[in-house]
Amino acid sequence: MSDPACWVFNVYQSASKPPASPPHPRHLLRLLLGFLAMAAPPQPVPAPAAVRPDVFRLGFIGPGNLAESIARGVAASGVLPATAIRTAPHRRPERAEAFSSIGAHILETNAQVVDDSDVIVISVKPQIVRQVLVELKPLLSEEKLLVSIAAGIKMEDLQGWSGHRRVIRVMPNTPSAVGQAASVMCLGEMATENDENRVRSLFSAIGKVWTAEEKYFDAVTGLSGSGPAYIFLAIEAMADGGVAAGLPRDLALGLASQTVLGAATMVNQTGKHPGQLKDMVTSPAGTTITGIQELEKGAFRGTLINAVVAATKRCRELSQS
Ligand SMILES: NC(=O)c1ccc[n+]([C@@H]2O[C@H](COP(=O)([O-])OP(=O)(O)OC[C@H]3O[C@@H](n4cnc5c(N)ncnc54)[C@H](OP(=O)(O)O)[C@@H]3O)[C@@H](O)[C@H]2O)c1
Questions:
Q1: What distance lies between CA 127 and its chain's CA centroid?
Q2: Is-above-0.90 flag for pTM?
Q3: For the chain, domain boundaries
């Protein structure tokens, strides 16, 4: 009996039980009016306070390939509106056009970009970083966050050249171009938790992000920085194997790259150890274990381990020279 008419009837019943005589229509009308007065018109329910997106102005010093990938990812994923992004062209006007096509603001000079940004990404080649930071040093007020993606340039140098302590260093990798970067960041002395969250949101727009101490950055470069090239080689070699076994080239290449993508996705999505996934697909005396036996004869795993260690060592040498 949730119908109001029934409710009125029930109220009447309980208030005047037993009725001495049938209710006079005037009483019924009064009850009904009373009920209507009690049932106040529904008030608009205030919408739950929406979490305000953290909109900040993002400037790129160096409108190159990686900067464009980040800008595109950030705008496409809605982390920031495109209008919150700015850069200035250097020599090639087509770089500015690429940013314009995203909807970013094109300013005239690096100084204007710094002046008009809260977060400034240094995205020039490593050998230019010093010169650029020394030039921008007088403009870097305390509230600005400096982010460097330049490979091999250490936090100590970034802070020293810029005279700024609110710095985050990030090491992304080339799959940033397709939104599948593996990026690692480390925080400078004065970078805040909010700064870390902002940079995480930017690089999450182009892949996955970890925070780690800077002491790991050489090894990060040897693994995820150089790693895509190791896998390109593996894809090419697997495709060559397919061709050697009689497959047409296109089919072999498609199968090889999709197999690498599928295997990596399984590791990421199942959370299972790759050794466990390997065991699940190797049946006794089957084809896969026969193939693995050949890989082990060629020291497949040892070679990959050595490759990462050698690239790490080389990165260390280069950053010391
Ligand atoms: N690409 C990657 O996947 C990747 C991965 C990890 C780290 N990184 C790092 O990311 C940085 C950028 O790499 P990238 O591949 O994007 O290089 P890039 O395409 O060559 O971009 C560099 C940009 O800097 C501009 N530039 C040069 N001198 C400048 C100056 N004085 N002021 C302002 N802009 C200037 C260049 O403009 P003009 O061409 O017009 O001179 C160009 O647009 C590098 O430090 C690299 O180590 C890249």
A1: 27
A2: no
A3: 4-39, 58-218, 227-320
